[in-house]
From TrEMBL:
UniProt entry keywords in alphabetical sequence: DNA-binding, Transcription, Transcription regulation
InterPro entries for the chain: ArsR-like_HTH, HTH_ArsR_DNA-bd_dom, HTH_MetalResp_TranReg, WH-like_DNA-bd_sf, WH_DNA-bd_sf
Origin superkingdom: Bacteria
Native organism taxonomy: Bacteria, Pseudomonadati, Planctomycetota, Planctomycetia, Pirellulales
Residues of the HTH arsR-type domain: 17-111
Identification of the protein by name: Metalloregulator ArsR/SmtB family transcription factor
Species: Rhodopirellula halodulae
Keyword Transcription in record: yes
Gene3D superfamilies in the record: Winged helix-like DNA-binding domain superfamily/Winged helix DNA-binding domain
Length: 112
C-alpha cells in the first residue's frame, strides 16, 4: 500500500513589528472611528475649511466641531492656518487619502 506524503507548506516570514508597536495606531484609529470625524477628513481631503463651515456641513455646534478638530490634530491628522480672523484646517497626514478611499469604497453607495 502506497503511503501518501504530505508536504508542509513553506513557512512565511512574519511581518515586522509586534502588538506593542500598534498602540499609537490603535489610539489614532479610535479617533477616526466617529462619523463626524470621518466626514471632516473627507471634506478636508477636498480643500481647507473653517470650524464654522465644517460644523454647518456636519450639522453640529461650532464648539463641538472644535473638540473633534482638536482630537484629529492631536493625532497629527490635521493642521491649522490662520488667515486674518479665520482659522482654516487642512489635512497634514497624506495617508488619510488612501484610508478614506477604502472607507468610501466599502461604505458609501455607488451613486453618492
Amino acid at each position: 500500500m502506497a503511503s501518501k506524503t504530505q508536504t508542509k507548506p513553506e513557512p512565511t516570514s512574519k511581518p515586522r513589528g509586534g502588538v506593542d508597536c500598534f498602540t499609537e495606531a490603535a489610539e489614532c484609529l479610535k479617533v477616526l472611528a466617529h462619523p463626524v470625524r470621518l466626514r471632516v477628513v473627507q471634506l478636508l481631503l477636498h480643500g481647507r475649511f473653517t470650524v464654522g463651515e465644517l460644523a454647518e456641513d456636519c450639522q453640529i455646534a461650532d464648539n463641538a466641531m472644535s473638540d473633534h478638530l482638536r482630537l484629529l490634530q492631536r493625532c497629527g491628522f490635521l493642521n491649522s492656518e490662520r488667515d486674518g480672523r479665520r482659522v482654516y484646517y487642512q489635512i497634514a497626514e497624506p495617508h488619510l487619502q488612501q484610508l478614506m478611499g477604502c472607507v468610501e469604497s466599502r461604505f458609501l453607495p455607488a451613486d453618492a
